[in-house]
Amino acid sequence: MIQSMTGYGRAIVDLPSKTMLIEIRSLNSKSLDLNLRIPNELRSRELEIRKLVAKQLKRGKIDVSIYAQKIKTQSCTKINSKIIEGYIKKLKSIDSAAELTELLKIAVGLPDAISNEKREINKKNWAMIITGINKCLNDIESYRIVDGKAMLKDFKLRIAAIQKNLFRVIKIDPKRVKNIRSKVKKSMLSIKAEIDQNRFEQELIYYIEKLDINEEKTRLQNNLDHFLKTLKVKQSSGKKLSFICQEIGREINTIGSKANFYPIQKHVVQMKDELEKIKEQLFNIL
């Protein structure tokens, strides 16, 4: 089942000390282009996040943003008693008459007397963040599948349109061959010279064979069938579809260059138009 490369996922993770907002956006790209915006406390986990996202999304321009949205009022303050006692002792040696309360006020304001400890992302909190990331990735995958289903319908319609034009080319082709024969004979008669009829027929057969499009018609039909079969495979394969699309284009172009017959050229133009629309859509297929 084909998938697009477009998607969006959002999750909110409530941790004991803060709320994390996780957003992941996905757009089309030839390869995996992964950009991360994460808080400093998650820097040590960056490689894990990259591996997790790359494994599930595989390809596309991916933007992962994690914000510490709200700091909750939980005290992380530590009073360093020994440092404060040391400050008071030194202050007493300077002014022995000073009251303890006044000395304590001064000591508390000195460096390292009180420290704010940053809460690290522990295993429990990290597991909650991973759950949030997985939710975003699953949302994106669901979006990609839904978008892919819409593209699948469009591909089938356009392949059917190319096949319809190919059938018309097949139907018209015998008339083209007769037309070539008639034109060549008229040209030869206009010269008013003696012609070896056997030699003329041999040369005419050789000329018509050079303009024969039976192989191209067969290969084009085979490539169209291959494209439709590839759409049905379980894993989305945009690169393979792009390759088949190139082969389809090659056969259509060859038919157009060999045909030299307006009724066929008209259908060739219509096939090219449908193929260009398929190519545009394939840029966004995983």
Short summary:
By secondary structure, the chain is of the alpha+beta class.
Write up what this structure looks like.
This protein is α+β, with helices and mostly antiparallel strands and 286 residues long. Helices cover 63% and strands 15% of the residues. It has eight helices and six strands. It has a four-stranded mixed β-sheet. A two-stranded antiparallel sheet has the order 5-6. Strand 1 and strand 2 form a beta hairpin.
Structural class: alpha+beta
Helical proportion? 55-70%
In the sheet with the most strands, the strands line up as 1-2-4-3
DSSP summary, beta strand count: 6
Report mean pLDDT, rounded to a whole number.
Answer: 86
Overall 3D form: rod-shaped
Give keywords.
286 residues; four-stranded mixed beta sheet; two-stranded antiparallel sheet; rod-shaped
